[in-house]
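Exam prep: given the inputs below (a chain plus NAP), describe the expected output before reading on.
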Amino acid sequence: MKKIIYHRFGDAEVLEMADVAMPAVSETTVLIKVKAVSINPLDWKIRNGEMKLMSGSKFPRGIGIDFSGIVEAVGSTIKAYKKGDEVFGLLDVFKGAALADYILADEQDIAAKPKGASFEQAAAAPVVGSAAIQLFDTLVNIQAGTEVLINGASGGIGMFAIQIAKKKGAAVTAVVSDNGLEAAEDWGSDVVINYRNEDVLQAGKLYDAVIDLSNQLPYSAAKKIMKASSVYVHTAPGPKEIISSFFISLFSAKKYKVLMLKPSPVYLKALKSYMEAGLSVVVSRVYSFDAFKTAYTEAPRAHIVGKSVIRVN
Ligand SMILES: NC(=O)c1ccc[n+]([C@@H]2O[C@H](COP(=O)([O-])OP(=O)(O)OC[C@H]3O[C@@H](n4cnc5c(N)ncnc54)[C@H](OP(=O)(O)O)[C@@H]3O)[C@@H](O)[C@H]2O)c1
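Solution:
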């Protein structure tokens, strides 16, 4: 079977398609024929070697975290799934190697694919959807009328965060570039700001929560637009942000929090419910398996609205 691997950190050129042995199902795993794998900023940050502390430096490595597919075989202890079931899920965030014809997953890493969703939409959801759910479950408390600013709102997490925040009753301001304006409106934002024409820091409005998905709006700037008692969320934290968030939150009513995704089957099931209830999942680019290098070369600078996905089988 085919699998995308790499033997050293670097740009998309380090990726290669290898012939490898089919993984053998164990008592506690599920063998999945992969249909689609989504592309996440984490993929290229790990591949570039930017996250060695968390990912380790062992080679060869695979790439790809979240996927959809069809169950091919199950271990003897697995009761919830059988051959032929359509599933979606995510592998270990830092070791994921989902971009392959077949993968092994643990039972808690998958859930039944949302009814009505394509394999591409299902593959697009687990990482960014779980991140958005975790964000509102653990970091930002939303009540009716909570004023939320989502900076970088037209990408993967933004797509889920806008729609989930609206369902919870928030008033959402989305900051996007030209190509994300329409989508941010479609997803229910109350106010949409184009960061190319307008500086949200100068707009004179204060928020209960500022969520930065762009890595371009640090706490030091965001606090200008935060209410006296409010929360800021950083989504790409390194050691500096983790330490700052601890001390600032200790001494200030303007809290500084960091997102550290902890995948959970509960989040996958919640995502399935959201999607079956009509939450929109936009997959604006689909690449063939053979085009994996193009996909990972284009993704970081393509200004993708929603998600891009690689179709495997
Ligand atoms: N901590 C965790 O556990 C965890 C988990 C998952 C993801 N993440 C991180 O969370 C971040 C967001 O993930 P994602 O999948 O949503 O990424 P994404 O799809 O790339 O979205 C990022 C968005 O930021 C926007 N942006 C870029 N420059 C901007 C600026 N100056 N002002 C406002 N917006 C700007 C982009 O819009 P344009 O393209 O239109 O410019 C893009 O839509 C990434 O850094 C990712 O690595 C963290």
